Amino acid sequence: VYYQRVLRNLHDIDEDYATGKLSEAEYIPEREAWVQRGIQTLKALDELNEEHLIAPEEADDAAIDEIIEQVLHKG
Question: What was the pLDDT predicted at 26?
């Protein structure tokens, strides 16, 4: 769910830029920040998978998001 939020925000930012709601000066740093969040999220998911900290069939989306937040903030 966390990664889906990142993708939604990237889509929204791209759309806002395309329609003129965001200037290039606003768009570039905002988009880069969300791209970095996406990268961090994917790395956190990889780490969780490698460490077997979660089993998808045993955890709901909220629990997985909470674990991702913990991994992101420890690094």
Answer: 98
